[in-house]
Design goal:
mainly alpha; 9 helices; transmembrane helix; Integral_membrane_TerC; Integral membrane protein TerC family protein; transmembrane; membrane
Length: 272
């Protein structure tokens, strides 16, 4: 077997480029994984993330292996009122509906006051472990259709694509815990992320009906929203810092006064 292609520069350039693309395209997936992982018991959250994303690696590798068949999903299967419907279109439609359903139910819970961040862990109703893992797998399968097609289109050898996907998923697994902890500490970020998922769900449904939405528009909207949320987080952090400084000054003053009173009382007690 000839492995001379491994020494070719464009092979490694393609690998590096694909690796970066896979990580960037997987960020929105990680956000939803972080939200889903918080549905299970605290002791099971790390295992849910690792199990779900670990099995997702296997799914993506299998999808790459059967890429020749998956690429045929773009061929029309039937026609509806002049609209060519392919397997990929049906997957996009199902995926978009799934994202809209999950994002809407999550938003409903928080808008109705059923915010899991405001409830003690002992009082939460936790989801079943394998139910959450299954949802992570479904989500990743939806998001991986385009990324898998991109992977095969960018490189000449399927092994390179498999390697890039495996490394990218390893990076995603490593980043899933810090991201989950960040989301846990900043509940407002969850609302922003759910808004992203609604937008992505609508875009998938639009793509299924052949209404192409330029990715640049989506990225611009997401980037602007992230910028506003960053300003919001900075404002909240500065507000908390000012409150802490103010409260610390009052606390120190009160402790000094009470300390002086305590000393005076002890002196008076000894004198009496």
């Amino acid at each position: 077997m000839d492995f001379s292609w491994l020494a070719e520069p464009h092979t490694w350039i393609g690998f590096a480029t694909l690796l970066v693309l896979e990580v960037v395209l997987g960020i929105d997936n990680l956000v939803f994984v972080a939200i889903l992982a918080n549905k299970v018991k605290p002791a099971q959250r790390d295992r849910a993330r690792i199990t779900g994303l670990g099995l997702a690696v296997v799914i993506r590798i299998i999808m790459l292996g059967f890429m020749a068949h998956i690429m045929t999903l773009t061929r029309p299967l039937f026609h509806i009122s002049g609209l060519d419907v392919s397997g990929k279109d049906m997957i996009m439609l199902a995926g978009g509906i799934f994202l809209l359903y999950k994002a809407t139910t999550e938003l409903h819970e928080r808008l109705e006051g059923h915010n899991q961040f405001a409830v003690a862990d002992s009082q939460k109703k936790h989801a079943r472990f394998w139910s959450v893992v299954a949802q992570i797998l479904i989500l990743d399968a939806v998001f991986s259709i385009d990324s898998v097609i991109t992977a095969v289109a960018m490189v000449d050898h399927i092994v390179v694509a498999m390697g890039a996907v495996a490394v990218a998923m390893t990076v995603m697994i490593s980043a899933s815990k810090p991201l989950t902890e960040f989301v846990d500490r900043h509940p407002t970020v969850v609302m922003l992320c759910l808004g992203f998922l609604l937008m992505i769900g609508f875009s998938l449904i639009a793509e299924a009906f052949h209404f192409h939405i330029p990715k640049g528009y989506l990225y611009a909207a997401i980037g602007f929203s992230i910028l506003i949320e960053a300003f919001n987080q900075i404002s909240q952090r500065n507000s908390r810092k000012n409150d802490y400084i103010s409260s610390s000054w009052r606390k120190r003053t009160a402790e000094n006064v009470l300390g002086m009173m305590g000393i005076r009382e002890s002196v008076l007690a000894k004198a009496g």
